[in-house]
Give the backbone structure.
Amino acid sequence: MSWSRESVVAELKEFDWLLPDADPGPELSAYSAHYHLNFEDSAEALSHQAGYLNIAEFQIVVQRWMCPNARGTAVIIHGYYDHLGLYGSLIDYCLRQQLNVIAFDLPGHGLSSGEQATIRDFQEYDAVFSGLMDQVTENMDEGPASNLVAFGQSTGGAILINYLLKRGFTVNDCPFKDVILLAPLVRPVGWRKGIIFHPVVSLFMKQMKRKHGDSSSDEEFLDFVRSQDPLQSLYLSVQWVGALIRWMRFIEAQPATDVNLFVVQGDNDGTVDWRHNMKVLEAKFTARELFILEDGRHHLVNESRDKRADMYQRITERLKQTLNTPVSAA
């Protein structure tokens, strides 16, 4: 491998919202090739920019892809242990749907700063996301591209849930034309054991060796994450688990809203307690729409090709309703 996390970060400059395109340096180019994010190489009219933003106490790495005749802008939030490099499938889908894409690495993930795969409190994720959203809206031109569509996978979904409920948004003032949650985290599988054992474990350990589950039926993806992704954490942070436990209580105490979510959930998900989570989301988001992906596991963005096709077809149908503008012919 011809790049390292440190070499890519050292090459990045501060993100400039007024700069639609920037030639990548050799380290970023190698990173993009490794994760198959170099979409602009096969689409001449597509522009790409990467850089960092100082938000809260973190240096957050942001990437943006812009396409001609955009009918909206997708804002993508990845899950725990993930980073935007694993979201090529979703980024590609959005670009094909003529959506510009803004994606970023959460604190402690990917190329962003912060202790790896941990957070003191989930509201730190909220501070980063809300800070990013402030800059997105301040620098968004008027027109179709200003139609924001938020995508959140797992913990990314939790961050969106928090963002909406904490601020009391309603369908009339929600900043997003649509919000799409993919296997959203509310409670994980085995959460009861976590609540019982966390106070004791946290006295003696900061982290535990990570166990890779079968989060997808795509064996090639599972092999990549386990053996070919240098940005993966090898450990589960005990601090992160504590932050999650506190956040679960916070979210389940929030009042409901009529913001209309679209939720995609696999019925073979062994990571989140999805049956409970769907009940919580139904109670908190009274207008939510749910699509159950048959035999879908947790990492829906990287599920097998046929399952992704089913998911993206349903999302396409949803976007036809919420954006009210068709994808134009190439």
Q: What stands out?
A: The mean pLDDT is 94. The domain at 67-321 is CATH 3.40.50.1820 (Rossmann fold). The two ends are 36 Å apart (CA to CA). The first strand starts at residue 47 and ends at 55.
